[in-house]
């Protein structure tokens, strides 16, 4: 079905930050086939026309670091130190996670992401075949990786073969909306031998690799003590760092680390909400961006954030860099919007999305900007970044398909997901 959206403000997130007022956007065969002012008779070329007066179209958000099924652990353990939280609360509860739980937890995350305007995301977790099923049902674009951790030996080989099986079964599946990456969890949960093996396998199949890297100062101190070098240097030595690498966090990085990240063209994912909540520190995002490193944005899992709201991350990212640099010009509107859209698409390897332009995939959202916090209308982009609200997202379109219309999710059963999730959470926490 072809679709024409008309009379909206259109934020393109292109190179020059173009905004088209009273614009029209045509969609055909999943792609944007018209972008510009509305012209007479244009509506006759499309099967359906949606009137969007006082509303704003922009590219869907790309949540470049998430653990979707961790929604099941949301609000289970808060206000704790990262290692204490991870090893004493999260890992034990995760041991009780079943395939069924992963499916419904992932579905809950997708429901939340769609409602907040996210059209693509990156995931590292377990039971990823179930998450792939949920993604296919939802229609969201997803880069999925089976989280890998351990020392070496049979267990390592088994996990890697599991990840490869996921790759063979789902990579470029569901009409190209699903990609599969290799996901060694971190340098503190994988041995160097493990990291080297993953790097070798990833090179062979040209897969993306995602890893948590230098998330905290403690991680760096322990790594230096154990291996005599920083996590970035260790990952580089293992051969893990290249232009297909997605490195989450990069909070505790020094000049040499950042230079390695730049040289290897690594994609860095900033997770300000999670870094603040776990008191991990503030990533030197402005410095890295100024060096030319591609910086994307992510929420991290819902148990360390505790939501999957990209608009909140956008605002937090901008504020944090302003505070740390004591410079209110740091991470301005256009830059932070790109981090949440086109930079994330590049990081995940979804080449044809993140920007509104003719020929690009029609992955976009419509925000109802007819609300008090968007008035007066000086600057639509600023209004969305600094005073917008993700619950104002009314339409979500992915590959030209309507996933949400007037706030109602079309592809998923919202009531059922909430019911199943509550049932599973009660079962998991009562054992
Ligand atoms: Zn994470």
Task: Give a brief rundown of this model.
This protein is α/β, with parallel strands linked by helices and 431 residues long.
| Ligands present | zinc ion
**Overall pLDDT level:** 96
Q: Percent helix among the residues?
A: 25-40%
DSSP helix count?
16
Estimate the global geometry from the Cα principal axes.
globular
Poorly predicted sequence stretches spanning 5 or more consecutive residues = none
Number-wise, the strands total 17
| N/C terminus separation | 49 Å
Strand content: 15-25%
The tally of domains stands at 2
Give me the Rg, rounded: 21 Å
CATH topology of the largest domain: TIM Barrel
What is the makeup of the main sheet?
Answer: 9 strands, mixed
Under the CATH scheme, which architecture of the largest domain would be assigned?
Alpha-Beta Barrel
Structure description:
By secondary structure, the protein is of the alpha/beta class. The protein has 16 helices and 17 strands. The protein has helices spanning 82-94, 99-115, 128-138, 154-170, 173-176, 192-205, 217-227, 231-237, 255-263, 272-277, 285-290, 310-325, 333-339, 342-348, 380-387, 414-430, and strands at residues 3-11, 19-28, 31-37, 48-51, 55-59, 61-66, 118-125, 141-148, 178-184, 209-213, 245-249, 267-270, 294-297, 364-368, 393-398, 401-405, 408-409. The mean pLDDT is 96. Bound molecules: zinc ion. Residues 65, 67, 212, 248, 300-301 line the site of zinc ion.
């Amino acid at each position: 079905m072809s679709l024409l959206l008309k009379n909206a403000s259109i934020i393109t997130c292109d190179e020059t930050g173009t905004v088209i007022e009273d614009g029209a956007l045509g969609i055909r065969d999943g792609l944007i086939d018209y972008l510009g002012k509305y012209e007479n008779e244009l509506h006759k070329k499309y099967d359906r026309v949606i009137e969007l007066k006082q509303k704003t179209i922009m590219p869907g958000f790309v949540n470049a670091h998430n653990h979707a099924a961790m929604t099941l652990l949301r609000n289970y353990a808060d206000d704790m130190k990262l290692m204490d939280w991870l090893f004493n609360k999260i890992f034990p509860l995760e041991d009780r996670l079943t395939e069924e739980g992963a499916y419904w937890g992932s579905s809950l995350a997708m429901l939340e992401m769609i409602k907040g305007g996210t059209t693509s995301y990156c995931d590292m977790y377990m039971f990823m075949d179930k998450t792939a099923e949920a993604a296919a049902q939802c229609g969201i674009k997803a880069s999925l990786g089976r989280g890998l951790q351990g020392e070496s030996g049979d267990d390592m080989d088994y996990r890697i073969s599991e990840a490869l099986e996921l790759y063979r079964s789902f990579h470029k599946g569901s009409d190209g909306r699903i990609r599969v990456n290799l996901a060694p969890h971190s340098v503190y949960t994988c041995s160097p031998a493990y990291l080297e093996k993953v790097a070798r396998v990833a090179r062979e199949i040209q897969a993306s690799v995602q890893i948590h890297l230098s998330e905290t100062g403690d991680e760096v101190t322990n790594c230096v003590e154990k291996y005599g070098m920083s996590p970035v240097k260790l990952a580089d030595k293992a051969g893990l760092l290249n232009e297909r690498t997605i490195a989450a966090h990069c909070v505790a990085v020094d000049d040499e680390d950042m230079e390695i990240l730049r040289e290897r063209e690594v994609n860095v994912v900033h997770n300000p909400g999670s870094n603040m909540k776990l008191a991990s520190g503030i990533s030197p995002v402005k410095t890295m961006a100024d060096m030319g490193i591609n910086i994307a944005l992510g929420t991290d899992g819902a148990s360390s954030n505790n939501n999957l709201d990209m608009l909140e991350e956008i605002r937090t990212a901008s504020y944090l860099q302003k505070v740390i640099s004591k410079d209110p010009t740091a991470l301005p509107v256009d830059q932070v919007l790109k981090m949440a859209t086109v930079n994330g698409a590049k990081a995940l390897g979804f080449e044809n999305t993140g920007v509104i332009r003719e020929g690009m995939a029609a992955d976009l959202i419509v925000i109802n900007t007819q609300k008090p916090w968007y008035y007066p209308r000086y600057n639509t982009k600023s209004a969305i970044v600094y005073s917008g609200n993700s619950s104002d997202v009314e339409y979500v379109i992915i590959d030209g398909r309507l996933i949400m219309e007037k706030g109602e999710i079309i592809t998923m059963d919202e009531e059922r997901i909430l019911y199943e999730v509550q049932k599973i959470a009660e079962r998991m926490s009562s054992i």
